[in-house]
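User: Modeling request: complex.
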Amino acid sequence: MELTKFNQTKIEILKLYEILEDVHKQLNIDNFVEQLEYSKTALIHDNFNVIVVGEFSRGKSTFINAILGKKILPSSTRPTTTVINKINYGQDPTYTIYFRAESNRRISYQEFQNLIVGNTPDIDCPEEVLCYQKHLEFTSTIEYLNIAYPLPLCKNGIEIIDTPGTNDTDATREEITFKFIPQADVAIFILSATQIFSDSEKEFLKNRILSSDIQKVFFVINFKDRLKSEAEESDIIDYAKTHLEAIVKNPKIYLVSSKDALNFKRSQNGETVEGKRNIIPENLDATGFVELETDLEQYLIDQRANIKFQKYIERGLRICNELELNYIELNKKIILVDNDTLEQKVEAFKPLVTATKNIVASELNRLLESFALSEKVLLTKYRMGLEKIARAAENAVDNYVGELYTENILKAVENIVAPLQLILHNELSDLKKLHLEDEIEFSINKLNNTCDNLVENFKEELGITNPEILEAPLSEMAINDELYQRDINLFKNFMIGGAIIGVIASSHMLVPIVGASFAMFNYFKYEQKGELLKRIKLQINKRYYDNIKGQLQDFKKQYKHDVELLLNILNDEIELKIRIFDEKLKELESEREINEVINKQKYENLELQSQRIQDIRNRLKNLRWI
Ligand SMILES: Nc1nc2c(ncn2[C@@H]2O[C@H](COP(=O)(O)OP(=O)(O)OP(=O)(O)O)[C@@H](O)[C@H]2O)c(=O)[nH]1
Ligand SMILES: [Mg+2]
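Assistant: Request completed. Predicted assembly structure:
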C-alpha cells in the first residue's frame, strides 16, 4: 500500500471513529467511547502487535527466539513464562517492568533473566517451594515486561507478545483474552506435533481468539523434529487441518521445529550452541521456517496496513451494528409505545368526563322536576289551609256574642284565626323543608358518587405511570371532605332559608289582616248590629278569600327563589368539581403534547444518528480490503 493511500485510510478511519464518538454524544451514551478512544490512540501510534499463544511448553518462547534469531526469552521443559513479555524495537537492549499499580522500572539483563525464569520447584524441597511462592507473588504485581532489542523485524512498530501457557491460572487467561488479544493484530497459535489439538486448545481458539477482531491467525505445529517420517508429518497436518476446518475457514498450517530453527540461526550468527540435545540442522528448509517466515513477513510488512486497518474497520462496523440494534431500534420502539399509551389514556379519560357531565346535568334536571312537583303539593296544602282559615274567620263572626264594637268583633276573629295561621305556617315550613332537604341530600349523594367514580377511573386509567397527574386531582379535589363541608352549609342555608321563608310567609299573611282591622275600625263603629255583623262578615270574607290568590303567588315566588338559591349553590359546587376534571384533562393533554414533542425530538435524533451510523457503515465497508 502506498504511503499516501495508507495515510488517507488512516485519516478516514480516525474521522469515522470521531463521528461515531459524536453519535455517542448526541445520543447521550458512552457505551463504546472508551474503546473508540483506545483504538484511535493505537491507530495513531501505528503499533502492530503479534501475539503468540498456546498451552504450556508448546514452544512459544522458543518460537519467538527462533524468529528473532536470538535466545532472548527463556525456555524450559517445565512451565516457564510467568509474565507477559512484549518484544519491540530499541537501539540498545533494555528490559523494563510495567507494574499494575506502581510506575515502570528499568531492570538489568540479569534481573530480567532471574525474573522470567520461574521454573516450577521440586515439591520435596521446602526452600524451593518458598522461593517459588515469593517469585509468583512478585510476578503477580507485574502487568508485563518490555524487552526492547535491536531486531530488524521489530522495526516499524512491530511488537511480538509472548504469553504464559493458556492453561495457566484463570486470571492470566482472562488477562490474555480481554487485554492482550484485543490489542493484537495477528495471532500465532502454537500447537505441538506431540500433543496435537486438545479440547482446551479448541475452546481457546473458538471463544477467545476467533471471537475477537483479530484478522489473521497463523497455526504453527511445533516439534517437527520429533516426527520420524514424512508420512507422520502429513498425518499430523491432515489431522490438524480436519479439526481446524470445523472451526476456521481455510486455516493455514505450518509444521516447524522452533528449536532447530533457533539453533540454526544462532550458529549462523556465530554463537556457540551447546548441549548434546542441540542438533544444528544443515539448512533452515527442514525446520519449516522458510515458508512460515516468508508468509509472516508478507503479512507483517506487505499486508500490515491492510490487516491493521481491517481490524479497525471491523471494530467500527461492529460498534455501528451494536448501536443500531441495541440502542437505536430499542429506543425507537420504547418511544412509540410511550406515545400510544399516553394517547390511549387521554382518550379513555375524555368520555368519562363527558359522562360525568351528563349525569350532573340530568340530576339537576331531575331535581328541578322534583321541586316543581313539591311546589304543587305545597301550594295545594297552603291553599287548603288558607281556605280553612277564611272559613274559621267567617264562623268567628257568625258565632260572635259580645258587644257590638268592630274592634271587639275583629279581636274575636283574630283570636280564632291567629293560632290556626301559626299552625299552618309551621306545617308548611316543615313540609317544605322536608321536601327540599330530602331531594338535595339524594342529589348530593348521587353527584358525590359520580365524582368519586370519575376519580377512581382517573386513577385506574392513568395507573401509576404518571403519579403527579394522579396526585393532583385527589389532593386538590378532596371530594368527600369538600362536599361534606358543603352539605352542612347547604342545610344550614336551607334551614335559614326555611326560617326566612316562614317569617316572610307569615308576615305576608298577617299584614293584610292587621291592615283590614284598622281600616275597618272607624267605618263599622256606628252601624246597627245585624247590619254591622253582616257587613263585617262580608268584608272578612272578601279579605280572606280574595287574599288567598296573592298569598299563594307570594309563596310561589318565595319557593322559586329558594329553589334557585339551592340549585345555584349546588351548581356552583358541581361546576367547581367538573372544572377541576376538565383542567386535569387539559393538563393531561398538554402533558401528552409536550411528551409527544419531546419524544418526536428524541425519535428524530435517533433517526438522524441512525443515518449517520449508516453513513459510517457504508464508508467503513468501502475501506474493506482496500
Ligand atoms: N525438540 C524440540 N523441543 C522444543 C521445540 N520447541 C521448544 N522445545 C522445547 O520445549 C520446551 C518448552 O519450550 P518453551 O519455549 O519454554 O515453551 P513455552 O510454550 O514458552 O512454555 P511456557 O512458557 O511454559 O508456556 C523447552 O525445553 C524447549 O527447548 C522444538 O521444536 N523441538
Ligand atoms: Mg514460554
